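Comment thread on ticket #2218

A.B. wrote:
> Attaching the input chain for the structure job we discussed in standup.
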Amino acid sequence: MRYLCLVYFEPNIFDKFTPAEGAAFTNESLTYDESLMARGLFVDANALQSTDQAKTVRVRNGKASVTDGPFAETREVLGGYVMVEAPNIDEALKAAAGIPLARLGSVEVRPILQLGKT
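C.D. wrote:
> Ran it. Output below, let me know if you need it in another format.
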């Protein structure tokens, strides 16, 4: 089963890093992705650009409106994701716990819902 690990953190968390610390953290994250690959768990992962690059679309009464930024104001923002394929939720949670950003923010783990036309 596939699980999406949604990575949340405070948007300014990386402002506290020196360039060397930022590079080391990026390398740690990429190395962790490689370890998931080696274990056969990795499906996909990406970091997201900052929320000032985001747009939110809402459709009401057949009309779309677009606003800047994320839908809700929160302390933590969605900063990226890691999708894993694991035999069960416990293995997915173990994989999520190893994501380096879990130490600075939080990782929400959700099973992927398989939709099909009937």
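A.B. wrote:
> Thanks. Noting for the ticket: The helical segments are 19-38, 89-97.
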